[in-house]
Amino acid sequence: MKIVVTSIFVDDQDKALNFYTETLGFVKKHDEPAGEFRWITLVSPDEQNGTELLLEPNNNPVAKEYQEKLFAQDIPATMFGVTDIEKEYKRLVERGVRFTTEPTEMGEVTLAVFDDTCGNYIQIVQQ
Description:
Blueprint: E1 5-10, H1 13-23, E2 27-34, E3 37-43, E4 52-57, H2 61-72, E5 78-81, H3 85-94, E6 99-106, E7 109-115, E8 121-126
Parallel strand pairs: 1-4, 5-8
Antiparallel strand pairs: 2-3, 3-4, 6-7, 7-8
Pfam family, one: Glyoxalase
InterPro entries: Glyas_Bleomycin-R_OHBP_Dase, Glyas_Fos-R_dOase_dom, VOC_core
Domain VOC: 1-127
């Protein structure tokens, strides 16, 4: 068994698609109509056949509350791995990304947290 798709709730699919592709650098894999919303998945440019990230609309009240409570408590919704966190941090800051936690060593990993502008904090980590 392997993880094929994982999702993140977003408050605006178009804004999220733009941020995750144009700012972060993910690649759009699927963008299909799904009722009043769309099935939008992204992949890493380095692993285009790897795990897909679904930009899930938070229109369900439970999803919206879950997302808002994580955000209010400064809890990242998910974590992305990077090879060089200092380089990635600088690249994203130059693109206007707002970090709530600068690169910080935590044992054997270094992590940083940023606001995805779509209702989530995202953690990047270098192992």
